[in-house]
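Long-time lurker. I teach an intro course on protein structure, and each term I like to show students one example going from raw sequence to a predicted 3D structure in token notation. This year I'd like something fresh instead of my usual example. Would anyone be willing to generate the tokens for the chain below so I can use it in lecture? Attribution to the forum is fine with me.
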Amino acid sequence: MKLKFIIEKSYPGLSKQRYRVLVPYLKKTVRLYQKSWNEINDEFFKTIEEITGYTWKHKIYFCVLSPFHRGISSWGGNKIIRTWRENPYSMRKITAHELIISHIFTIFERDFQEENLINKQKWALAEISAWAITGLENKMLKFWPWISGEEKYPLNHNYPELYNLQKRLKPIYVKKKNSKGFLQKAIKILKRNFKG
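-- Reply from a regular --
Happy to contribute to a lecture. Here you go:
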């Protein structure tokens, strides 16, 4: 598996003049991000397969650098979006988070279709799972050892509707035997407590 950082030829909402000003910096950032990510690429993808018990759906993933958006996942697709305005090393955790969300959505497609989760429920569980994997798994923390304690399993994000569910699922994740078992338990809680 491979993550390749790219820029688009245009961005909706961005004027041609503004795009011309940004392009040289986007190109430099692509190189810096790619160099940093390449240091962890192979081990990251392998470690996620070990943690989740599922192979990645795509062989190559693309990360579009955005002038606007901090982070967006494609919910099972092979393209994510990340801001170009970060340090090449500090960008790793959120980039990983967006990739993991996409991976979790493919797990839902493979094994959990009969659960009939609505998109908002899938999104909630994918977000929380990505926070848990990137911050509660020692195997993952080595990819971003500089993060502080509160950044590991953050409760200071832009989704306050997830706080209670996130707090409830943390001990279940920590005690899990495997990721599939965690998802099965989490889905039961999600269906009772998160209608979207």
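Some talking points for your students: Residues 2-193 form one domain. The mean pLDDT is 95.
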